[in-house]
Amino acid sequence: MVQIVNDALEQAIVDTGVEARLILCTLRHFSTADSLRTAHLVHAFEGTLVVGLDLAGNEAGHSLDAHIATFDYAHQHGLSCTAHAGEALGAQSVLETLDRLNPSRIGHGVRSIEEPALLNELKRRHVHLEVCPTCNIQIGIFESLSAHPVDQLYRAGVSVGINTDTRTLTPTTLSAEYAHLAATFCWTHHDFLRSNMMALDASFAEPAVKTRLQSVLERAYA
């Protein structure tokens, strides 16, 4: 299945000129064996468009215990890692995920705002937050965009990227997310370029691709 998706994505990149990569995701409710199987697949497809490992699922209902071995395996084999935290649970969930899984990115992570010391830790470790404002509001984490901490996180100097999350569940587009941020927090082209550069720096793409895309972004925003 991974091979089929990888091949289709490879063709789509050729057809559209849009760069994309694949991250294989294990889930909180998976067993250790199931979780490790995902990491083994990431390792097996190293050198293809598969570039990293993720952990998602209900952080409020399942601990990290079953996934420690998975992320240990990933780090031992030099695999890039991200993990969801700080959405259904608060800042402590983010800190626990950082300490026990050591990912370079955190999916959501927005409730890090609840603990100022954690913001400093995110900056110290150069951890990037994959922020999905509309989704967070849709599931009731925040009542409105004006109450969402994305701007506070960004102004505090935390590395923040703007994302749509699962568009089959959250009816939005990246353009809509940008428009909402501009209207609510007065983000300008400078802010969006800076956020894009943060996301590009934190991406799992190859260095040559990052360099090329940096030029594309700079020309586009100019």
UniProtKB/TrEMBL annotation:
<dbReference type="Pfam" id="PF00962">
    <property type="entry name" value="A_deaminase"/>
</dbReference>
<keyword id="KW-0479">Metal-binding</keyword>
<keyword id="KW-0378">Hydrolase</keyword>
<dbReference type="InterPro" id="IPR006330">
    <property type="entry name" value="Ado/ade_deaminase"/>
</dbReference>
<dbReference type="GO" id="GO:0046872">
    <property type="term" value="F:metal ion binding"/>
</dbReference>
<dbReference type="InterPro" id="IPR032466">
    <property type="entry name" value="Metal_Hydrolase"/>
</dbReference>
<dbReference type="GO" id="GO:0043103">
    <property type="term" value="P:hypoxanthine salvage"/>
</dbReference>
<keyword id="KW-0862">Zinc</keyword>
<feature type="domain" description="Adenosine deaminase">
    <location>
        <begin position="2"/>
        <end position="217"/>
    </location>
</feature>
<dbReference type="GO" id="GO:0006154">
    <property type="term" value="P:adenosine catabolic process"/>
</dbReference>
<comment type="similarity">
    <text>Belongs to the metallo-dependent hydrolases superfamily. Adenosine and AMP deaminases family.</text>
</comment>
<protein>
    <recommendedName>
        <fullName>adenosine deaminase</fullName>
        <ecNumber>3.5.4.4</ecNumber>
    </recommendedName>
</protein>
<dbReference type="GO" id="GO:0004000">
    <property type="term" value="F:adenosine deaminase activity"/>
</dbReference>
<dbReference type="GO" id="GO:0005829">
    <property type="term" value="C:cytosol"/>
</dbReference>
<dbReference type="InterPro" id="IPR001365">
    <property type="entry name" value="A_deaminase_dom"/>
</dbReference>
<dbReference type="GO" id="GO:0046103">
    <property type="term" value="P:inosine biosynthetic process"/>
</dbReference>
<dbReference type="GO" id="GO:0060169">
    <property type="term" value="P:negative regulation of adenosine receptor signaling pathway"/>
</dbReference>
<dbReference type="GO" id="GO:0009897">
    <property type="term" value="C:external side of plasma membrane"/>
</dbReference>
